[in-house]
Amino acid sequence: MKLENQPAQVKLISFKNTKVAVLEYRGNPNLIGNSVCKFIEWRKQNCLPPTVSDTFNILYDNPSETAPDDYRLDICASTERDVVDNPFGVVGKIIPGGRCAVLRHIGSDSNISQSITYLYSIWLPLSGEEPRDFPLYLQRVSFFPDVPEYEAITDIFLPLK
User: Fold this and answer.
1) Domain count along the chain
2) 98, pLDDT greater than 50
3) Which of 1, 13, 28, 136 is least crowded, fewest Cβ atoms below 10 Å from its Cβ?
């Protein structure tokens, strides 16, 4: 467990409804790279680079508890525009607003599960809070190739009642 994950670093915030363009990924989490490249190409064609459109991932499943073929994740970019039918399969959704616990993870995704485990297994039981009926999601604040992987910043959002 990373020592820098302390309860004081978990912040309670009010998240606003956020319209997102989504590429729904289904399959082995180790093979997500092709879908990420596909989504990047869609973003480029729709003028929604990360500098003007926030990047999110909605995590429906824990990869260590889900059969690889059953794993689900949404790759998202915030947008105020409606998403029109497109050959990439990108669709429109909403990340619902509400209270969230947020923990900032700095570094590679290779150890992000430690931060997620901390949030669920240590912080949540001690907080007296209850999770809301929406999956955990991530906001990619800064990421490779804009920064080295060890400097990547990801905010982990746990929706609360």
Assistant:
1) 1
2) yes
3) 1
